[in-house]
Amino acid sequence: MQNDRIYYRELQCYKAADRKNTGPKESSGCYDLSLLPEGQIREEMKSFIFQRGREVSYTTILSDKTYFNQLALFMKEKDLKNIRSFLDKTPDQWIRLLKGWMIQKGIKLTYEKKNIYGTSSVIDARLIQYLKKILHHVEPPDERDEVEKDIWKLDALGIEIRHNPIYNVETVNFQNIIQPDIRSEVKKIVYLNLQYEAVGTVLRELTAVRKFSAYLHKEWPSIQSCCEIDRDILEGYLISQMTDDSSHRSNSDNVLKLRNLLEGIGKLYQYSNLETLFLNTDIPPEIKAEFKVYSDKEMQRLNAHIAKLDEQIARWLIIHQMLGTRVSDTSTLRCDCLYQENGQDMIQIHQVKTRVFQKPISRELARLIQKALEYTREKYGETKYIFVDEKNPKRPLQYTTIKYKVMGMILKEDLKDDNGELFHFGTHLFRHFYGVKLTEMHLDDWTIAKLLGHKRLGSVQHYRKMSNQRMADETREVRNMMTDVIYQILDGWGEEYEQIRPND
Does 34 lie in the same domain as 122? Predict the structure, then answer.
């Protein structure tokens, strides 16, 4: 029947797809719902496919067709014709049935997925993932208050969330806190913490408490509430963390975050046992990360390939190097960030971590930033940020996008550092490179702090406050030297660089 078919051409992703990828064959292709049992299940699948067509690309819809057909065959061979809806069985029952059928058919239940750093993880087969997406789609809406759920949507909490805009965090997940009472206690303190802590800090607190919850479940299964936690239990956990081979330099932060969360719960619920639970000596010494910086030769090799990336990504990477800013500061550069003061090109930077500050920049850098701005306006119209997320231009360019682009390039080109190892990429390395170059120019700490956007000088002995004009006068030579250093590194890019290099 015609009503039992969903043609690709009906889906939103088909209408938005490049026409060269959607020929006559694709336009007549369809999902045949008659392959499924009769009843509500066909309407559920229809709703899912149309929703999917609004969320994913046309090529993904074509791939989904394979899993749809496999799922239909599974239902036929398992004699599920009496099933009227996906809601007739629990998600666990569906998954068990499907896995049993896959084993009979010799279809693998998992596959190995490699990430951009070359490490791998074992995840569910795509057919299982496809069924899970369907089951999630048909779930009745959860009418409970958001704070009663085990997964919170941050935009549904009705509170202002402090977050770094270059990281897309939409939810907070409590599902892996095993003990129901502890989960409830944690929810209440997290809701309070979200009102004055950055969401990144809250997520690290949840990571710490999830580890603790897993330990309690294994070693102290009778413990169900934070009011039952005593010093002996905590000491056992701390020892297990110190002796765990998987523990690394984040262990200090994990203990600190666990203490903050448990002490907050103690105050909120008046659990006196939590007030004196931790000792100062419980916090392991922080293992500082090794200070790494690219050599000049490494920068030259890396930049030679950066020029081959998408032109706006390449611009971002070069501007990031020349500014010496944090990655979040570069990604959130605003369209009105450039201005002049007494003929000197200046830039205003809205730091996520600290404050708004201004610093002088070279004319060449100002031109490059202007070119990036023109690119964005031509492609996306008026936006808040110069560098934007292509899927949502209201957001700044996401750090994961930059990381995946650069790491993909490093792996594809097999780029090696001076030690013959695969290039490590971290955008903070550019900032280290910039800082090292400044110190090599024998600048005082205050000038370096101003150029890097540091709020405090720390151990700096000689502190002097500089106006923008005085700073421009006193650092002009330094900035010109820095520009020369960067451009020396970029020599040899050839035609690839011309697309991002500002016109003289």
Answer: yes
